[in-house]
TrEMBL record:
Residues 10-148 form the PIN domain. This is PhoH-like ATPase. In the N-terminal section; belongs to the PINc/VapC protein family. Keywords: Membrane, Transmembrane, Transmembrane helix. It comes from Paraglaciecola agarilytica NO2.
Length: 329
């Protein structure tokens, strides 16, 4: 168990999904102490030998912890091994890493009596909270239900893992679109429209949207207009007229968008002029489903093209051989 330290340092108990999400997550807590329950190590050991995609992450995490703890005695493992000297800079860890043998926790100290892995991890955090009070003990997990259970069981501090968020305040990230109140065309006093092939481009005064940037989608409350900023100059912006219904009617390999957010994602992913698309949104908004479907279909199409190309090469090679044999007769 962690050594007694000043109250301004905290103890973080890590759930298995944190180390699968980021294998070196235990190094991200600066001066604070990190506790990994034995149950977490058992889950990592089980996952590392599986055929799941996260098996590699489990192996990386286990190997990194073993590199830190391999010279420690059993007593030191439970008391905590310092992480000082690993990494440089302000974010380098200076706290300790310890292994908590949750199987040895007396039954009378179990808040949850059922022998489930999540319950054992929560019991560990509750035990450490009682033992190290008033020092803060925090359970870190990406499992929403587990966070609710821990809170309900009396754990004062439960967190999601946010260290991997590269932007410190996500609200300042661009949404990728701008919605006008009311009708978009009521905001426009002058417009120069032209046709390029099947596309209609509107050139507007920059004052309509001073903060406009290339590839920003434009919507309004009427759900009739939808556009995409194609270029921005000092005084003007060019907007590609997409049309709300046409944007919502976009299909790709039988996949159709359920809302305007997904429709904009479809359009961006299918636009050959856009090299990188970043999707943000709450759970269930379709980020993973859309990208996974597109990637899977792309790979299948690519492999099918390679297969057909191989058949064509074989066909032409065979024809060349037959022609050569015929010519020699």
């Amino acid at each position: 168990m962690p050594e007694k330290k000043a109250l301004d340092t905290r103890i973080y108990v890590l759930d298995t999904n944190i180390l699968l999400h980021e294998p070196l997550a235990f190094l991200s807590f600066k001066e604070h102490d990190v506790v990994v329950p034995m149950t977490v190590l058992e889950e990592l050991d089980y996952i590392k030998d599986s055929k799941k995609d996260v098996a590699r992450d489990a192996r990386v995490s286990i190997r990194a912890m073993e590199d830190l703890l391999h010279d420690a005695t059993p007593e030191q493992l439970m008391e905590g091994v310092t992480m000082q000297g690993i990494g440089v800079g302000e974010t380098a860890p200076t706290g300790s890493l310890s292994i908590f043998v949750d199987h040895a926790l007396p039954a009378d100290q179990h808040v949850f009596t059922s022998d489930e892995n999540d319950n054992r991890i929560i019991n560990t955090a509750l035990h450490l909270q009682a033992q190290y009070h008033p020092r803060q003990v925090t359970l870190v997990t990406k499992d929403i239900n587990m966070r609710l259970k821990a809170k309900g069981a009396g754990l004062a501090h439960v967190e999601d893992y946010r260290t991997d968020q590269l932007v410190s305040d996500i609200k300042y990230l661009s949404k990728g679109f701008h919605r006008f109140n009311g009708d978009f065309w009521n905001e426009v006093t002058a417009v120069d429209s032209r046709t390029e092939g099947r596309d209609t481009i509107h050139t507007l005064a920059r004052e309509v949207l001073p903060e406009a940037y290339v590839n920003e989608y434009l919507l309004d409350d009427t759900e009739h207009f939808a556009g995409l900023v194609e270029s921005v100059s000092e005084k003007e912006i060019d907007v590609l007229d997409l049309g709300y219904e046409r944007l919502m009617g976009r299909r790709a390999w039988g996949i159709t968008p359920k809302n305007i957010g997904q429709a904009m994602a479809f359009h961006s992913l299918l636009d050959p002029h856009i090299d990188l698309v970043i999707l943000t949104g709450p759970a269930g908004s379709g980020k993973t489903g859309i990208t996974a479907s597109f990637f899977s279909i792309f790979v299948q199409t690519y492999l099918r093209a390679l297969y057909l190309l191989g058949l064509l090469c074989s066909y032409f090679t065979l024809n060349r051989i037959i022609f050569s044999l015929t010519a020699t007769r």
